[in-house]
Amino acid sequence: MDFSLIWAGLAKLTDWLSSYYSQVAMTIVATMFIVYGDVVNKRIKKLLAPYHFIIRTLAFVLICAFGYGALILFATPHVKLLILQIPSLYRGLSVVLMFLLLGYLAENRRYI
Fold first, then answer.
1. Does residue 7 belong to any structural domain of this protein?
2. Is 94:59 a contact under the CB 8 Å cutoff?
3. Helix 68-85 vs helix 88-108: angle between axes, to the nearest 10 degrees?
4. What is the pLDDT of residue 60?
5. CA distance 80 to 83
6. Whether the predicted model's global pTM rises above the 0.85 cut
């Protein structure tokens, strides 16, 4: 059996995605926050429960507006480095499989 066509397809997929790894990494991080953000928000809500309404609201807005954005900007380069650690031949396939896994996780948590 000749696998050269499969290897060529994997290499082409990797080449096609190679200039978009930063965007792919940010999409992965943002999708993880979307899928699991409610868990984080529940913990924050429990943490802020004993405080006055104005303090709770202000803290929640600051955490959601700036905290999540900062975490996404901080985590994106690390996820990109993880993607770049994957052997070149399998990088494109790994990205596709990661998005399929995120879709499965979203389906499991009833987001789809």
1. no
2. no
3. 140
4. 84
5. 5
6. no
pLDDT for the residue 109: 86
In a domain, 15, yes or no: no
Is the residue at 62 inside a domain?
yes
Amino acid at 85: Q
Domain that holds residue 47: 29-108
The SS3 assignment for 105 reads: helix
Residue numbers of the chain with a pLDDT score lower than 50:
none
For 14-80, give the DSSP string: HHHHGGGHHHHHHHHHHHHHHHHHHHHHHHHHHHHTTS-HHHHHHHHHHIIIIIHHHHHHHHHHHHH
Q: How many structural domains is the chain composed of?
A: 1
The answer to whether the beta carbons of residues 89 and 7 sit under 8 Å apart is yes
Residue 14, domain member (yes or no): no
pLDDT, position 29: 96
pLDDT tens per residue across span 82-112: 999 999 888 988 999 999 999 999 999 886 6
